[in-house]
Design a protein that fits this description.
The chain contains 6 helices and 17 strands. By secondary structure, the protein is an alpha+beta fold. It folds into 3 domains: 11-80, Uridine Diphospho-n-acetylenolpyruvylglucosamine Reductase, domain 2 (2-Layer Sandwich); 82-192, Uridine Diphospho-n-acetylenolpyruvylglucosamine Reductase, domain 3, CATH 3.30.465.10; 209-303, Uridine Diphospho-n-acetylenolpyruvylglucosamine Reductase, domain 1 (Alpha-Beta Complex), CATH 3.90.78. The strands form 5 sheets. The chain has a 5-stranded antiparallel β-sheet with strand order 6-7-12-10-11. It is globular and about 50 Å long. It starts with 10 loop residues before the first strand and ends in a 6-residue tail after the last strand. The relative contact order is 0.14.
């Protein structure tokens, strides 16, 4: 990157490896990693950054494969200046760097039910972008509005209705960085909410490889197919089932493996490269299509460039 970059108050690091910032522990460097001090620092930096320089907002890397060649962009990662939580009545506003699990716990303490967030890995900014959901509840069910900094450096508030929230997707302005989100949550008994979250955690740990290096669910559940594989209005088919049917539970490529415990979890079993992980995922997609005619869609975001051959 040959452009002169603005000088922020936060931390701007050139050629910063991203592998230690992703849950899968793979990936090459970003041209720059920017960790803004606060909202005004972020807004000022983006306003002065040449429009031709791409930016990539990154959360805690829980749902991400950074390819081995890295990212030709300024990667923006929000930290402590963006993790405050404010509760007024049944409305909660959380900074985008707030962990989903932390917001669920704080809400429960206040007698507000956002328990579905408790077992979702990641931060609130990513949860908004992906319309994260669990146990039948989604961000879209509770989100009122978000605050963003646009690529041009303007701070704006967007109502949830403008985001076109849908299964694992949303429409955010290109280059925008989510800085906070406001939710309206139903009331509940704090003790009952805590007990529900404890039960959710126990079920998750019993069925998912939470002690392995993964990025959560690898593929979205197929939409528009019944468990017979015929297209209809039912959404009950699970990605793990078609992966099992294709004989890919436990499949390996280099250091990458489809988990034996839950076949829709792609794990770094030791020494995997980003190419190992992505290529194994593509092989799973190929085998599933061959056996069931279903095209699995990635839930994990894959970004950046491969290494040069």
């Amino acid at each position: 990157m040959t452009h002169a970059l603005p000088t922020p108050r936060g931390t701007l690091t050139p050629n910063r490896s991203l592998s230690d910032l992703t849950w899968l522990r793979v990936g090459g460097p970003a041209d720059y990693l920017f960790q803004p001090a606060d909202v005004s620092d972020l807004a000022g930096f983006l306003a002065e950054l040449p429009p031709s320089v791409p930016v990539f907002p990154m959360g805690v890397g829980s749902n991400l494969i950074v390819r081995d060649g890295g990212i030709r962009a300024v990667v923006i990662r929000l930290g402590r200046g963006f993790n405050a939580i404010e509760i007024t009545g049944n409305r909660l506003t959380a900074g985008a760097a707030t962990l989903d699990a932390h917001l669920a716990r704080r809400a429960a303490e206040a007698g507000l039910d956002l328990t579905f967030l408790r077992t979702i890995p990641g931060s609130i900014g990513g949860a908004v972008r992906m319309n994260a959901g669990c146990y039948g509840d989604y961000v879209a069910d509770f989100l009122e509005e978000i605050q963003i900094v646009t690529r041009a450096g303007q701070v704006e508030t967007l109502p949830a209705s403008e985001l076109n929230l849908r299964y694992r997707q949303s429409d955010l302005p290109e280059g925008a960085v989510v800085i906070s989100a406001t939710f309206r949550a139903p009331e509940g008994d704090p003790a009952a909410l805590e007990a529900r979250m404890a039960d959710q955690l126990a079920k998750r740990d019993a069925t998912q490889p939470t002690k392995d290096r993964s990025a959560g669910s690898t593929f979205r559940n197929p939409v528009g197919h019944s468990s017979t594989g015929r297209a209809d209005d039912s959404h009950d088919l699970k990605a793990w089932k078609v992966i099992d049917d294709a004989g890919m539970r436990g499949a390996r490529l280099g250091g990458a493996q489809m988990s034996q415990m839950h076949s829709n979890f792609l794990i770094n079993a030791g020494g995997a490269t980003a190419a190992d992980l992505e290529n194994l995922g593509e092989e799973v997609r190929k085998r599933v299509f061959q056996t069931s005619g279903i095209t699995l869609e990635w839930e994990i975001m894959r970004v950046g460039e491969p290494t040069a051959e």
